[in-house]
Prior knowledge:
This protein has 2 helices and no strands. By secondary structure, it is an all-alpha fold. It has a domain of 36 residues. Helix 1 runs antiparallel to helix 2.
Amino acid sequence: MSEPTAEQVTFATLRCWAQQTIKLADDAQADRRSPLAGARVAARDVLAILDMNGRPPGEPVHFSNYEG
């Protein structure tokens, strides 16, 4: 088995951070205006960006809509 590339490690690290942040915020039932809720929104956006990989060209990416 070959070593993962630096890009693969970076993407995996970002995905892990985003998933953990979302879980933490959900478990804490963070208020919409709290810093943790803002981090949850950012984490969802990171996942949306990561999920773009492999999409057909021109397919839209849906980001969170945070009204804080």
